[in-house]
């Protein structure tokens, strides 16, 4: 898989994570149901008293809407390496799990002792998302759906999630194009409310407009830093910052380390 984030509407998204240091990311929202396979290093997920450790050669399925503190730990001089496939909501809605062999995933479902056939299905799903010019959409949807079957027979399945929170609806609109010079008025118009109503509804859920916009932009930047070779300056521009130094300051404020920490010596 090329080192980039691939998104295919109607099927899902896929990417590879490469990270050169042990880093802790706080309050990471799982935006889509996702399966992550750790190939090198260790991933740790924490939520209150809950902790899940994913070792090399293991995988984890994460339910949409959950918020974790995440540690990706590189080993010695070798980079942390993982791959992920996220599922389009249409795929989740159309899937009918066999409930007598699996239970709905609440937070995270650890997958150990991965069979080669599971890893083959995972790779096929990732390729189907990443290669639209070679693989027709119906075939891609079938391959991504096959990965859900493997998850089901491994003991879990994703529940469809209805986005009812106003802040979640706002976040989804911002995520569609984080580089847009968003204003409260423009977002309110997108959501069918006045700017005053937008700010009041966000405040009731613990957000300001600027806090939510910054969080969306920093989360998008984090993913691009982990899963692409796009230069930091270009990532800054893609999430709405013309100044790389201002972007780096915002990123450090959000995560506690600079953008360069993810890529080690690379930029």
TrEMBL record:
GO terms for molecular function: DNA-binding transcription factor activity; transcription cis-regulatory region binding. This is Helix-turn-helix transcriptional regulator. It comes from the Bacteria. Residues 168-265 form the HTH araC/xylS-type domain. GO terms for cellular component: cytosol. The keyword Phosphoprotein does not apply. PROSITE patterns: HTH_ARAC_FAMILY_2. It comes from Ensifer oleiphilus. The keyword Transferase does not apply. Keywords: DNA-binding, Transcription, Transcription regulation. PANTHER family: HTH-TYPE TRANSCRIPTIONAL REGULATOR GADX.
